[in-house]
From TrEMBL, chains A, B:
SMART domains: HTH_ARSR. This is ArsR/SmtB family transcription factor. PROSITE patterns: HTH_ARSR_2. Residues 26-120 form the HTH arsR-type domain. It comes from Streptomyces polyrhachis. It holds the Pfam family HTH_5. Keywords: DNA-binding, Transcription, Transcription regulation.
Length: 120, 120
């Protein structure tokens, strides 16, 4: 799959849809969409890679930037794709490499679901 | 397993340990602990049950309060135990029923990891 220059429209399909968890029980559909994002962060290696991208200079990183998590480059690529499919990263190809960047709006919405729940 | 009256000391073992995801790559140990909590919310049924507890009157609920998620009572109990093991719920037995309550500090810390990441 070659993603040319433009960023894919990540938000529409995968952005958090849901009220704070204290407000009312989620519907099945809401839970399906939201659980998908939490699940993406529910793997230790994937979470480490996510933090490596999020904390990288410039807020983006390619596979070539990430070497110290102790997994092979194909494994890194696999996990970054999973994070992208979950809507947590966007990507852009530049030359040889695909650069990944955190989707701030999605993370902020996930955080708000939890943080407001905590206040309730 | 009978949990008598007192709440278990949830925080010490399972509370989030980690800086915002933008600050630096998580260590393997930090990722292990944090991923565990995200994973617990990464199942749609479990997430619905969690929101049912979090949004229930008084901020707590027992299995007897949750009937509309479309899964059996043993399944509800199973998932609530998993959420407790992940540190997201605490529990207290009163008579026949175990009551579950959201752990606000844990949720707030999870939210902060994400929300600060989003701002970074």
């Amino acid at each position: 799959m070659s993603n040319a220059a433009a960023l894919p429209p990540v938000g529409s399909e995968v952005a958090p849809c849901c009220p704070p968890l204290t407000e009312r029980p989620l519907t099945a559909e809401e839970a399906e969409r939201t659980a998908r994002m939490f699940k993406a962060l529910g793997d230790p290696v994937r979470l480490r890679l996510f933090s490596a991208v999020a904390s990288h200079a410039g807020g983006e990183a390619c596979v070539c930037d990430i070497s110290d998590v102790g997994v092979s480059q194909p494994t890194v690529s696999h996990h970054l794709k999973k994070l992208k499919e979950a809507g947590l990263l966007s990507s852009e190809r530049r030359g040889t490499w695909v650069y990944y960047r955190v989707e701030p709006a999605v993370l902020a919405a996930m955080g708000a679901i939890l943080t407001k729940a905590a206040g309730g």
